[in-house]
Amino acid sequence: MQSKTAEAEGRLQNAGDREIRAVGGGAHRALAGAIDHTVGASGTKNVVRVPPPETQVDAGRPSQIGTVSQLVAGGVAGAFSKTCTAPLARLTILFQVQGMNTGGAKLSPPSILKEASRVLREEGVRAFWKGNGVTIVHRLPYSSINFFAYEQYKMTLRRILGIEGNKESLGVGMGTRLLAGGGAGITAASLTYPLDLVRTRLAAQTKDMYYRGITHALLTISREEGLRGLYKGLGPTLMGVGPNIAINFCIYETLKAMWVAQRPDTSPIFVSLACGSLAGICSSSATFPIDLVRRRMQLEGAGGRALIYKRGLAGTFKQIMQEEGLFGLYRGILPEYYKVIPSVGIVFMTYEFMKRILQPQSWNAS
After folding, report:
1. Which residues contact 334 (CB under 8 A, 6 or more apart)?
2. Beta partners for 43?
3. Which residue intervals correspond to the Solcar repeats (predicted)?
């Protein structure tokens, strides 16, 4: 009897040690409800079940996936989103650059239905996806670098500030997300910019096809405008993409954290879609004028045409406002809204979904 008692005490002691180690490792969620109460003839017996270390989840540590998984998830998310919203994206670009083709004539108010009907009548259904091939080629590396850089910058900032787990305040959390998002956007845009410029020129073409594809466009621009021609509009692009991505990530992650804290049982896919859409509206509203200017600067001199804006970024802003008024800086904002609501939502939703496919245990950490 004494030996059985000693053996039972030993098992209980070992179980207690394992439980302490699990709690110390941040596994209190996995241990919740781990005690089963089974009633036998002699009374109640407590059985402690402690999950093995490899299945324990650190509740205080932000979920991370491997480098390759981050790159794949980000790339697929960006490419899929752009393909889904390509028709609205092309309409936005066509509206943005209308002021370059009027020859001084007064512009009519933009009409989505009218422009879509013209594209369909003159160019066919496939024209709505004109430039989508280079968009995918651009978005795969761009989104991969963007999401990967954001995760890396955010972790670096958290280490510098000594933030562990979820102990950061709302203000500090938003600040790190803004800085990490801005840095990620600038990094991704700088490394993939020539493809972005080619995409704009291909999408802006209507019936007159000067560029016949990605390779032809890259070679033609390099030959006619020099290597610097591949980086036209880089300045306003970096000025716009930094705040755009910063606002996107900051609002998305802040809203998501607040939503999950209040309603933890909500579907992660729905949360990502809703928060991503709201983040996209806010970021597009704040940065649309600089995006319009960068599109026009990207098209300067395309196809051997004469330059229209010759006084740099500030001069371009001033010239557009003089010729088209303040509304000219927001020409195309309506299809942009129609595009960005599903586009950004799909990006974040697909990114979260791909993370869960590539590393299933991240379902438990969101």
Report:
1. 110, 112
2. 40
3. 65-156, 172-258, 267-357
Do 119 and 207 form a contact (C-beta atoms < 8 A)?
no
Question: What's the pTM value of the predicted model, to 2 decimals?
Answer: 0.66
Query: Is 272 within 8 Å of 175 (Cβ atoms)?
Result: no
CATH of 67-365 given 1.10.1740.10, 1.10.3720.10, 1.10.150.20, 1.50.40.10? 1.50.40.10
The full 3-state SS of 83-127, as one line of letters, equals HHCHHHHHHHHHHHCHHHCCCCCCCCCCCHHHHHHHHHHHHCHHH
Condensed to tens digits (0 to 9), the pLDDT of residues 68-109 reads 777 788 788 888 888 889 999 899 999 998 878 656 567 778
Name the DSSP letter for residue 365.
G
How many C-alpha atoms does 91 have within 13 Å on its Cβ side? 26
Low-confidence ranges of the chain (pLDDT < 50): 1-2, 4-5, 8-9, 12-13, 15-16, 18-63, 363, 365-366
CA distances (Å), 105 to each of 98, 191, 281, 329, in order?
11, 38, 32, 17
CA separation for the pair 115, 204 (Å, rounded)? 13
Nearest Cα neighbor of 129 from 119, 139, 121, 138 is 119
> What sign does the CA torsion over 345, 330, 301, 213 have?
positive
